[in-house]
Design goal:
Helix content is 33%, strand content 25%. The protein is an alpha+beta fold and 182 residues long.
Length: 182
């Protein structure tokens, strides 16, 4: 089986970071033609990947996080793009979600709340394990519990682009439980 992690990273480059460099045009929702993306993959890697590899990647993203979406022969990267704001329909979240961060960042979050920073949204996980995986990549992990339903009821808008994650623009500290951050 081909290295789908490398293919996933190239797809992110094509669809998130540098679509212009590869002659791809993203529409207002971040979609572009799937066949054009396949052509760029073939140009870059020749026969290293098959179209079946691409479909497998789109169905079973490495690491379990769905990163891409295909509709009607068009593809986009989930979770924001360079210069293209992505929107999703608002949803009601579960009572509790999780956010993985570092001990250093938790101190700032305690004062200022969660902010999307350079990203379009704050990413929240449906399970503690997924949040822990994210936090481990950046330093000493801390898991924050998010009172998502209470935040939603107070007017914060949540989105649910795929089964393991919810998104929100920002959350003030009163909706964050800092169990591990002390």
């Amino acid at each position: 089986m081909a290295n789908l992690v490398k293919l996933s990273k190239f797809l992110s480059l094509l669809l998130r970071h540098e679509p212009d460099q590869f002659g791809l045009v993203l529409d207002a929702d971040g979609f572009t033609n799937l066949d054009a993306v396949w052509q760029r993959i073939s140009e870059r890697y020749g026969n290293r990947y098959t179209y079946a590899d691409l479909i497998t990647l789109l169905e079973e993203t490495p690491g379990g996080k769905q990163r891409f979406e295909v509709k009607d022969g068009r593809i986009r990267a989930l979770y924001g793009h360079s210069g293209v704001p992505i929107t999703y329909p608002p949803v009601e979240p579960p009572e509790i979600l999780y956010h993985g961060t570092t001990r250093e960042a938790a101190a700032k979050i305690r004062r200022e709340g969660l902010k999307s920073q350079a990203r379009q949204y704050v990413h929240l996980s449906t399970d503690k394990g997924r949040a822990l995986d994210v936090a481990r990549r950046h330093g000493q992990p801390v898991i924050l519990r998010i009172r998502a339903l209470a935040a939603h009821q107070a007017g914060h808008i949540f989105y649910h682009p795929e089964r393991q994650h919810f998104l929100v623009k920002a959350l003030p500290p009163e909706f964050i439980i800092f169990d591990d951050a002390d």
